[in-house]
Amino acid sequence: MSTIKISKFLSEAGVASRRKSETLVTQGLIFVNGKKMANVARRIDPAKDKIAFNGKLVQIQNLAYYLLDKPVGYTSTTEDAHARKLITELVPEFPKVWPVGRLDKYTSGLILLTNDGQMTLKLTHPRYRVEKEYEITAGKPLNEAEIKFIQRGIKLEDGFIKPDRFEKIGDNSYRIVIHSGKKHVVRRLIEKTGNSVARLKRTRIGFLTLDGLQTGKWRPLTQREIEKLTE
Question: Which has the closest alpha carbon to 124: 107, 103, 151, 109?
Fold first, then answer.
């Protein structure tokens, strides 16, 4: 293997995403050949260099890809001292994986977990404009003016957000398609109408759906799905 950036090596080894790996380096938690590494731009040779984190040798591991139907009540993170239930408890313990993006504790539905840093970047970075679809049950029905208000786009505290699609699908249920990954963005759009979200479920990421998957269950991605997500 040729030399690669330390953050890429750490993500492929399942330590953390590339961004989090850079933070680990700047915090002085990564050692190369017994010496603390401080330069995130430094390249290493996995075939020759010994990389350590938390006192343990880090090695490239097999890549894993899980599609999970997250239940309400689980936290979308790998570590949280205050969380009673983590979504990583619902998938195999090894190899270590992390969630691609986040669903808050009270949101259910489709989430991917992987140790593939490249796929994580492609699915979460705004420039790739990956669609996410949600089904919403509002606290009370939205009227026609409120629906149009959301459809036209709303200026939030961290920028203007215009859904790719927003439509009514039931008496008090709605479907939204959005590519923004901003925190709590769907809930905040609904709250701008003076309403609230009673139930929120993500049903699609790109071409991936929850078809055939029960709440709390997972399945591995097929090779064809992996190829489509990384091509």
Answer: 103
Region class of 81: left (phi > 0), else alpha (psi between -120 and 50), else beta: alpha
pLDDT in tens, 127-175: 888 999 999 999 999 999 999 999 999 999 999 999 999 999 999 999 9
Beta carbons within 8 Å of 225's beta carbon, 6+ residues apart: 65, 207, 208
- Residue tagged 């990564």 (tokens): 30
Whether the per-residue pLDDT at 97 is higher than 70: the answer is yes
Q: Which of 80, 104, 158, 164 is catalytic?
A: 104
The DSSP element (H or E) to which 112 belongs, if any, is strand 108-114
Pairing of strands 132-138, 159-161: unpaired
pLDDT band at 56 (very low <50, low <70, confident <90, very high): confident
Is the Cβ–Cβ distance between 101 and 181 less than 8 Å? yes
Residue labelled with tokens 């690669």:
4
**Catalytic annotation on 104?**
yes
Per residue in 18-38, pLDDT tens?
A: 888 899 999 999 999 999 988
Over its C-alpha atoms, the chain yields an Rg (Å, rounded) of: 20
